[in-house]
Amino acid sequence: MRFDIITVLPDLLESPFAHSILQRAKNKGLAEIHVHNLRDYSTNKHKSVDDYPYGGGSGMVLQIEPFARCIEQLQAERAYDEIIYMTPDGETFNQDIANGLSTKGNIMILCGHYKGIDQRIRDIYVTKEISIGDYVLSGGELPAAIVTDAIIRLIPGVLSDETSALSDSFQDGLLDAPIYTRPADWKGHKVPDILLSGHEAKIATWKHEQQLKRTQERRPDLLND
Ligand code: ADE
Question: Could you give all domains of the chain from N- to C-terminal order, each with its CATH number?
Answer without folding.
Answer: 2-154 (3.40.1280.10), 169-222 (1.10.1270.20)
